[in-house]
Design brief:
It is a single chain. The protein has one domain: Spore Coat Polysaccharide Biosynthesis Protein SpsA, Chain A, CATH 3.90.550.10. It is built from 11 helices and 10 strands. With 302 residues, it is of the alpha/beta class. The C terminus is likely disordered.
Length: 302
């Protein structure tokens, strides 16, 4: 197997970064994989010491085919750093696996990601590969579903992968946003993969959040692209401890990575399972007050 490069984005969390890398080092294909790390620059003086601590640690790590560290002199911000870094690596390698500094991986993670990238490389309707799935406590897979993966129009950000030809034409400026914003039917269609999507896109375009994810999700929606998700998660987000920029404190996303399958079967028949889609949408279901605001078109961000 020709292993795809791994891109890791880190900032100011030494403990999370170390745990993320240690989990990666335990992956079966780690020693055959190129690891490219983007270390963002500091927003202010408070972030300088942890960033320097992380960079000292990064320069000592081993266990991969090669390690390349890109130290940003200035702060790019989460979204720009990821968009620029992924674009650079994809332009050189054609495909890549992407992680941030708070993602633990199963030791089968790289096996799954590389196999999926190879299997669906020529299936242009597949835009991205997700290594994450919600734990069974909040995301119920119907007992009748026997597959190892499923298809969804929503991408995921907690360990993912893509190809250059799917990435090239993303409109990061969302130039048709005003048209979308006035089209309730389009918003309803977008939200088939989660009630949070339209709200998140509005917040992004109004400058309230800094998200590459929601713009990639919109790209999936606009162009009919699909993501594949595993039945059992290969990743766990450990950033819900109050340390992350966009993460609150919760334990509901904790995953049992021992359930991950080493050699999942990838179907050639590509279709969205309606029952799984309903389960996925329940994870992001909004409360009655939020739904009422949307019905009445009350938008605090205007």
């Amino acid at each position: 197997m020709n292993c795809s490069p791994i891109i890791l984005f880190v900032y100011n969390r030494p403990h999370h970064t170390q745990k993320t890398i240690e989990a990666l080092q335990r992956n079966i294909l780690a020693d055959r994989s190129h690891l490219i790390i983007y270390s963002d620059g500091a927003k202010d003086d408070r972030d300088v010491p942890p960033i320097l601590q992380i960079r000292e640690y990064l320069n000592k790590i081993s266990g991969f085919r090669s390690v390349q560290i890109v130290e940003r002199k200035r702060n790019r911000g989460c979204a720009n750093n990821i968009i620029e870094g992924v674009s650079t690596v994809l332009n050189e390698h054609g495909k890549a696996i992407v992680l941030e500094d708070d993602i633990l991986t199963s030791h089968y993670f790289l096996c799954y990601m590389n196999a999926a990238l190879d299997f669906y490389q020529d299936r242009k309707e597949i835009f991205s590969i997700s290594g994450y799935n919600h734990p069974p406590s909040i995301m119920r897979i119907p007992a009748s579903y026997k597959g190892d993966i499923f298809f969804c129009r929503r991408n995921a950000s907690w360990g993912w992968a893509t190809w250059l030809d799917r990435w090239l034409n993303i409109d990061w400026e969302i130039r048709d946003f005003e048209t979308f914003y006035e089209d309730l039917k389009a918003q309803k269609e977008f939200n088939q993969s989660g009630d949070d999507l339209s709200d998140m896109l509005v917040r992004q375009m109004k400058g309230k959040i800094d998200s590459w994810f929601i713009r990639l999700a919109y790209h999936h929606y606009k162009h009919g692209g699909l993501a594949i998700w595993p039945k059992y998660s290969y990743t766990e987000n450990i950033g819900f401890d109050g340390s992350g920029i966009h993460c609150s404190i919760t334990t509901k996303y904790q995953n049992d990575l021992s359930m991950a399958i080493r050699t999942p079967e990838f179907p050639t028949d590509i279709k969205v399972d309606k029952d799984i889609l309903k389960s996925l949408k329940k994870v992001t279901r909004r409360g009655p007050l939020t739904r009422l605001k949307k019905i009445l078109r009350i938008d605090r961000i205007r």
